[in-house]
Amino acid sequence: MSINFSVLVMLHLAALVGGLLLLAISADAFVVGAARLATAMRLPPVVVGTVVIGFGTSLPELVSSVLASAQGSLSLAIGSVIGSDTANATLVVGVTGILAAPAVSRRVLRREAPMAAAAVALFALAARSGMSRWSGIGLLVAMAIAAVLLLVQSREEPQVPLHDETGPGDGAKSPGAPAAALRAAGGLVGTLAGAEMLVWGALGVAARSGLPIGPVGIVVVGLGTSLPELVTAVQACRRGHTDLVVGNVLGSNMLNSLGVAGVATVVHPQRLPPSTTGLPLLVTVLAMATVSLFFVTGRRLRRGEGILLVVLYGASVAIALR
Q: Sign of torsion, CA 182 52 172 29?
C-alpha cells in the first residue's frame, strides 16, 4: 500500500512539474506565433500588443483555472489567480527593481497602475462575498470595459512595430503566415496539455499531502504560471525594456483578476473556504497597493523597494502554507 501511495505521489509531482514546464514553453510559442501571424495579416500594432500578446501572456492562468473549475475545484482556480497576482506584484516587479531600478512612465501611472489596482480590489470583493455566477459575469463585464478603454487609449499613442519582441532578430527573414499559424496552434495544444497535467498533479498532491487545495493553487500553481513573466522580466532588464515589464505585469494582473477569475467562476460558481479568501487574499490586495504606492511616490522602483517586495512575496508564501 505504501509503495502504491509513493508511486502515486511521485506521478502527481511529475505531472505538476512537467505541466508547469510545458505550460511555460507552449505559452511562449503561442504568443510569438500569434503575434507574428497578426503582424503578417497587417493588424495594427496596438491590436497585436494589447490583445494578442496581452491575452497570450495570461493564457497559462486562463487554461489551468478553467480546467480546474470545470473539474469542480474553483478553489484551485481562484487560488492560482491569487498566487499569480501576488507573485507578479511582488516577486516579478521586485526582481525588476533589484536588477534595473526602472523608471515608471506617466502612461503606466495614468493607465495600467490604477486599472490593475481597481481590478484586484474588485476581484477581492467578489471572492469575499462568494463567487456566484453573477459575480463572474460582473468581473467579465468589467474586463470588457477595461479592454475597450485600453484599446481606445492605446490608439492615441505612437504605434511602434513589435519586431523586437516577436521577430527573429539579427536581420533574419520573418517567417510567413503558415509557419506562424502552425507555431501558434502547436503552442495552444501544448498549453492545453500542460494545463491538464498541472491541474491533475496539483489536485493529486493536495489530496495526498493533506494540504487544502486553495493554498496549493496559491503557492505552486500561482508561482508556476507567473514564471513566464519572471523570465521575461529578467530578459527585459538585460535589454533595457524595464517599463514594458512593469506595464505587462500590471496588465497581467488585470486580466487574471477580471478575465481568468470571471470565466472560472461562470464555469463552476462555488463559495470558497477561508484558507483561500482569508489572509492570502488580503496579502494580494496589500501587494498591489504597495507596488502602486511605490510607483506613484517615486516614479522609479528603487532597489530597496524591490527587495521589500521580494520579502513580501516570501511572507505571502508562508501565510498561504501556515
A: negative
- Distances in Å between the Cα of 262 and the Cα atoms of 47, 77, 256, 257 are 22, 10, 9, 8
170-192: average pLDDT: 70
d(CA 96, CA 313): 14
- Amino acid identity at 281: L
Backbone angles phi, psi at 193, to 5 degrees: -65, -40
Cell 498532491, residue? 205
| Count of structural domains within the chain | 1
Between CA 104 and CA 293 the distance in angstroms is 12
DSSP, collapsed to helix, strand or coil, labels residue 44 as coil
Surface-to-core class of residue 101, CB atoms within 10 Å of its CB (0-12 exposed, 13-18 middle, 19+ buried): middle
Sole residue written with cell 484599446 = 151
Range in 52-61, 71-80, 180-189, 273-282 with the lowest mean pLDDT: 52-61
Widest Cα–Cα separation across the chain: 65
Q: What CATH number does residue 15 fall under?
A: 1.20.1420.30
Cα end-to-end distance, the chain, whole Å:
29
Going 237 to 241 to 243 to 246, the CA torsion angle's sign is negative
b/e burial code for range 270-306 (CB count within 10 A of at least 16 → b) = bebeebbbeebbebbbbbbebbbebbeeeeebeeebb
CA distances from 286 to 82, 162, 240 (A): 12, 34, 28
Q: How far apart are CA 195 and CA 102, in angstroms?
A: 33
The set of residues, in sequence order, having a beta carbon less than 8 Å from that of 49 and lying 6+ positions away, is 154, 162
Domain of residue 88 covers 2-320
pLDDT tens digit string along 236-285? 677 666 666 677 777 788 888 999 999 999 998 888 887 777 888 898 99
Q: 88: closest CA among 271, 284, 299? A: 284
Question: What radius of gyration, in Å, describes the C-alpha atoms of the chain?
Answer: 19
